[in-house]
Specification:
By secondary structure, the chain is an alpha+beta fold. The protein is built from 2 helices and 8 strands, in the order E-E-E-H-E-E-E-H-E-E.
């Protein structure tokens, strides 16, 4: 990372305190960038549905600034999402994750690596 780019932690709303999510703003970067680092445990029960909805709500609430590019990195444990085909099949967690992330922006770019996905909200 360039020495002149500093990060500033973003204080997330207290209702998201139980999520495994961390957010920072890149200070003095052009364009302005906010990065969310997210982890969702690999469960697929009713609690997991609540958890993924909270993650989507948190990202939505904290990405409403249209003057900033938002990147989401991490592991949401949604193996039913086909990132190359931009769809999810046979899995409610995957459906909620994909549709929730997709609805957060006008343009969503998905970058897929073997075990990492970078979602860029523009």
């Amino acid at each position: 990372m360039k020495e002149n780019i500093h990060v500033l932690p973003v204080g997330l709303t207290v209702k998201y305190a139980n999520l495994e999510i961390f957010c920072v703003n890149l200070v003095n970067s052009k364009p302005n960038v906010r990065v969310f680092v997210v982890y969702r445990p690999p469960k697929n029960d009713l609690d997991a549905i609540v958890f993924i909805k909270l993650i989507i709500d948190c990202i939505t609430e904290h990405s409403s600034n249209s003057k900033r590019i938002h990147h989401i990195v991490g592991d949401i444990n949604a193996p039913s999402i086909n990132w190359q085909l931009h769809c999810s099949v046979t899995d409610q967690i995957g459906d909620i994750s994909y549709l929730g992330l997709q609805s957060n922006s006008v343009s969503v770019n998905w970058f897929s690596f073997p075990h990492v996905v970078l979602v860029s909200l523009m």
